[in-house]
Amino acid sequence: MDFRQYSENKKNEKTKNTGNDRRFGEEEVRRTYDDTVKRMRGKSQKELMDEIMKEADKARREGRLDGERLKNFYDTVAPMLDKNQLKKLKEIISVIDVGE
After folding, report:
1. N or C terminus: which one in the chain shows less Cβ crowding within 10 Å?
2. Using 50, 70 and 90 to split pLDDT, how confident is the model at 19?
3. For the residues of 50-99, what is the DSSP string, one character each?
4. Could you give the CA distance from residue 37 to residue 57 in angstroms, rounded to a whole number?
5. Residue 39: which of 50, 27, 51, 26 has the closest Cα?
6. What is the pTM of this model?
């Protein structure tokens, strides 16, 4: 997942005052998630973790990643994952969260 796109979507979601704000944000996250999955397909686990950590570090430096955004990301993406993917996501988030 591209944290920059995710955090910008959340920022845009908060500034709109329509009844569909939350739904729009979730749809955008799903599209970003799907695009990211396609881009990462075929990479090794080490390559994936390196890419995730690189993006997380960059987002943290730019002020786009914090505990609240990480939790929102998890809450949005988790329903789209199977049991094994959810376990891996929890591991990844715990590694990213330690770096905060």
Report:
1. C
2. very low
3. HHHHHHHHHHHHTT---HHHHHHHHHHHGGGS-HHHHHHHHHHHHHHHHT
4. 20
5. 51
6. 0.54
